[in-house]
Design a protein that fits this description.
alpha/beta; TIM Barrel; binds zinc ion; globular
């Protein structure tokens, strides 16, 4: 056996370390879009990415894109998106909502099992930019805590503000906590109620202008789920490459580090987190993007 392993070519050994189901699927689909590289994100200084709102974006080469999906998990549409990504051997980042995870934890687990990156998008998707500091902090922290607890592996300290509605106070808070904030470079407009064909045309047109960047979709949308298979084919045809983003340090290790530092920061957070009248629900902003 030792001799057999020693004689295997390097590429075969590399395949052995890949999850068998995914490896066999990719081997059987040589035309798959695939992942061209993995980009590790150091969140320790609370970076912000996405030229729609911020000065910087991810360090991407021309023709490199990062796929992101917001608002899920959704039991039907997210599942369809996951199937489409799997067929093309592509990895994405999902910015998930606490209340959705509470309703559909098995779909969240599917995302994790298939190797996607899981970030958060608040507890219940309110307009955080217009909330008191205490309620906004609670939305961010409760989201991270509950989503991390709902899946059997550590999530990423990646956050996207609901509706992209940030505030200076909460941006500073996220930076202090070591969370990376993600806006976007290319919007798909899929939250506007447009059909699958328009989603693909609009997104490809914007991407062709920018040539690279973070793309924002919503895995809760029926039209988006319908668009993703053909969109991935269009990326392949256009010569685009998929970059999979992962954190250098996951959410859990950030928490451990904070606890080791005497817990002072966590005590401050607990104080800020003292719940207001509501954590969300009836008074929340509708989910838009
Ligand atoms: Zn959203």
């Amino acid at each position: 056996m030792r001799n057999l392993v020693a004689s295997l070519p390097v590429c075969a050994l590399a395949l052995m370390s890949v999850t068998p189901a995914i490896a066999s699927y990719c081997v059987n689909n040589p035309d798959a879009l695939g992942v061209s590289r993995v980009l590790e994100i150091d969140t320790s200084d609370g970076p912000r990415f996405g030229t729609l709102q911020y000065k910087k974006t991810l360090d991407l080469q021309p023709k490199e894109v990062v796929l992101t999906f917001d608002d899920g998990p959704h039991p039907i549409n997210t599942q369809r998106v996951l199937e489409a990504l799997k067929k093309e051997c592509v990895k994405a980042t999902f910015f998930t909502v606490g209340t959705m995870v509470q309703s559909y934890p098995e779909t969240l687990q599917s995302m994790a099992d298939e190797g996607h990156t899981i970030g958060t998008h608040s507890w219940s998707h309110p307009n955080i930019g217009r909330m008191s500091t205490a309620r906004a902090t609670n939305q961010i922290e409760r989201g991270f805590r509950t989503i991390n607890a709902a899946v059997d592996q550590q999530i990423a300290p990646f956050f996207r503000f609901p509706g992209l509605n940030d505030s200076n106070v909460m941006k500073a808070y996220a930076t202090k906590r070591g969370y990376a904030i993600f806006s976007t470079d290319v919007s798909s407009d899929d939250w506007r109620g447009i059909g699958a064909t328009t989603i693909i045309q609009r997104t490809m047109s914007r991407l062709n202008q920018k040539q690279s960047g973070i793309i924002l979709f919503h895995d809760t949308k029926f039209a988006t789920a319908a668009a993703v298979p053909a969109f991935l084919r269009a990326l392949k045809k256009g010569g685009y490459k998929i970059v999979h983003i992962v954190p250098v340090n996951n959410y859990g290790s950030l928490q451990s580090a904070a606890a080791e530092n005497g817990g002072a920061e966590l005590a401050t957070i607990a104080k800020l987190e003292k719940p207001g009248k509501s954590d969300g629900g009836a008074g929340d902003a509708p989910i838009k993007r």
